């Protein structure tokens, strides 16, 4: 069993980079997922997490929901990718967030 608290304590603070999360909501069309993935692939980025489902929206229409996480991404690159995602045909909404280790977790 790995004790993550020990790993955080032993590692230098600069070793921790933030993780960027992208939540993409789009019309459920087959061409959306490869277009979304292409934005990361052409930058030689591999998502550390990719989860996608087709769900019904409020009006009962099918909606593709994609949640992507990428580690070690610069803020300006993440913002640019989000702008590009918003320009893809059939993409309706793109939400972004950044998560990382808190200072208290690094000092613990």
Structure description:
There is one protein chain. The protein has helices at 4-10, 32-41, 75-86, 103-107, and strands at residues 19-27, 49-56, 62-71, 91-99. With 108 residues, the chain is of the alpha+beta class. Strands 2-3-1-4 form a 4-stranded antiparallel β-sheet, with helices on one face. The longest helix has 12 residues, at 75-86. The protein starts with a helix and ends with a helix.
Question: How would you summarize the topology of this molecule?
Answer:
Layout: H1 4-10, E1 19-27, H2 32-41, E2 49-56, E3 62-71, H3 75-86, E4 91-99, H4 103-107
Antiparallel strand pairs: 1-3, 1-4, 2-3
Major beta sheet, strand line-up: 2-3-1-4
Give the N-terminus to C-terminus distance in angstroms.
Answer: 19 Å
* Biggest sheet character: 4 strands, antiparallel
**Helices and strands, in N-to-C order?**
HEHEEHEH
* Tally of individual helices: 4
How much helix, percentage-wise, in residues? 25-40%
Average pLDDT over all residues: 84
How many β-strand stretches?
Answer: 4
Extract low-pLDDT stretches. Answer: 1-15
- Quaternary status: single chain
Describe the structure using short key phrases.
108 residues, 4-stranded antiparallel β-sheet, alpha+beta
